[in-house]
Structures are given as structure tokens and as C-alpha cells.
Amino acid sequence: MRLWLTLAGIGFRRWSTYRLAAFAGAFTNSVFGLIRAGVITAAVAAAGGTLGG
């Protein structure tokens, strides 16, 4: 049990060191995800609004 608590503490300390990098990565992935969703939505709408399989 002590090993798991130690590993959890080390993992949390490592994550908290790079908080800004983690936030920036999540933000960037969210923006690119929205762009990708917009492109796919526009392509479906240009194709008549339905997918052909």
C-alpha cells in the first residue's frame, strides 16, 4: 500500500510541475478538435447532408 501511495505522490508532483504545459496541450487539442469538427460538418453539408457509408 505504501508503494502505491508513493507512486501516486510522485505522479502528482510530476503533473503539477508541468501544469501550464498540460493546460496548453488540452487547449490546443480542443481548438484543433473544433476545427476538425467544423470541416467535417461543412463537408457533410456540401455533400447533401447525409453520409454514404
List strands and helices in order, with pairings.
Layout: H1 2-17, H2 19-46
Report on the structure:
- The longest helix is centred in the middle third of the chain and has 28 residues, at 19-46.
- This protein has 53 residues and is an all-alpha fold.
- The protein is built from two helices and no strands.
- Helix content is 83%, strand content 0%.
Shape: elongated
- N-to-C SSE string, H for helix and E for strand: HH
Rg, Å, rounded:
20 Å
Q: Count of DSSP helices?
A: 2
Largest sheet: none
Uncertain regions spanning at least 5 consecutive residues? none
Strand content: under 5%
How far apart are the termini? 51 Å
Helix proportion of residues, in percent?
A: over 70%
Structural class category: mainly alpha
Tell me, rounded to a whole number, the average pLDDT. Answer: 88
- How many strands? 0
